[in-house]
Amino acid sequence: MRHPYIAKFNEWWLWKGPRVTIITAFVLVNAGVWIYGYCLALGVDPAPYYPYAKGFGKTLNVNCSFILITVLRNTLCWLRSTPLADVIPLDDNIAMHKLVFAFIAVGGIMHAVFHYLDFGWNEQRYGVSTGHQAFANLAGVTGHLIALMMLCMFLSAVFMRKYFTFRRFRFDGYRTFLLVHKLWMPCFVLLWLHGPMFWAFSLWPLAFIGLEKLVQKRRAKVDVVVIDSKIVGQDILALKMKMQGKRKFNYKAGQYLFLNCPDITELEWHPFTITSAPEEAHFSCHIRARPDMDWCYKLRTLLGHARTEVVPKEGRQSLVVRPVVKKSGNLEAGEVKPAKEDKAQIMLRVDGPYGSPSEEVFDHSTVVLVGAGIGVTPFISILKSMTIRVKQREGLSKEARAEQQRLKIHFFWVCRDEQELSSFKDLIDAVISNADLKDHVVLNTYTTGVWLSAGPFGVICIAVHADALLRISQELNLKKVTLHAYNQYSGKPNWGRILKEIAGAHQGEEIGVFMCGPLPLAHDLNLACKRQNHMAAKGKPGDKENRTIFKFKKENF
Length: 557
Description:
Largest sheet: 7 strands, mixed
Strand content: 15-25%
Low-confidence stretches: 309-341, 450-484
């Protein structure tokens, strides 16, 4: 019997192993670069800490260049189509960006500390003041300015989702983050002046940035026409759009785009999953737009869908309806632009499409799709596309028809309550009601909260934790209820049991598992996939052809 600590370590390694491997490799690369820089500086300067400072300087050259690669969307989309996608967690690029900055911060601090130790040594030996050594030369001035700019970028990233209030003015944290991060450009200029060899390290990432900008210039900032907009479910803004003129927006099911509204701000571009099918004449997005969501709610207000509340009219018993308005970050308190009546006159721009893990769905004959709340959006596009493909089956070749007939989708949608479920219920019902899809799609919904009505005096919402609700349902021995052509459950999905059943029904296949939702759900599902693969690997050698492998992919942008 294995020790419990060994079992816990194996479970941890199943979840964290690939990331730990990448981080370890990154640490080793930095260690090697530091040793290289240290050895090169030996004997160059009599100051005792000079080699240490130069060692960290070399790591800064590498990391300050590499950090740009982690935010190049087009480059990452291209890499996703290469064999590197199976080795490098490309969808964790933002986490990698933060990790590289952590190495930059540590390297910059140690670089400065060792230089200041040398300044103190020089002051005692040669009588040159520390201040003169630190600021009376180009390297010292540029180094301190670089540190100040990086500190500003770090602070703006920490408070990115918060608001700033200064002299009764409220500023949007995300917009401040975007503006402050523009400092990377003057920061690079100062790095060229500060380090004589930094240009050699920065050439290749800057070349990638140039290529990225050329691609964006060709397809970004294209005006679109809003065909229709409405609120569905609970604060979900459904946008239906088309390109201006005869230009067509070409994309794959599961991809995403960036939207910009100049009437709100020229600076901000926000990512949204495309919920329409590529075969449709238009493209659409579903955007959560609560009053506490700054940019999204401003867009909702401009389109004429602001929330309303009933308030007593002064001096009368009758009631009037007024819009609920969120205070804007760059406007006076309470001031909001009026909604435009003609939706076609509202200017929207689109940048994209961009690749995502969900676009690989049709590379598998059997897939498991898991969406949590509004995380269902990439799979709406996939289901729509599949519906249209099935309808167009008659015009396909015999091989293509056989390929479509083998496709099987196990769809799981996890929601907090019935209100969240209703947001996309009409779209899902339209897909599931298609008779041609009955043999291809199995839809399961899980509601992890309970809503109880309190009669004519209001509604009481009881928020039940998913684990507690699951225990209650197990104690009461609740069965699944099949309504609207799909299975409805209460409680938290048991992924171990679910994947085991799917593996038994699809022996010998490689099943794609695609998930869009919060990290805790991704942790449970990914761990369940790796456990199932581990159990399959421990089977009999002769059963190799019957082993079912689950490949997990998480949506992240």
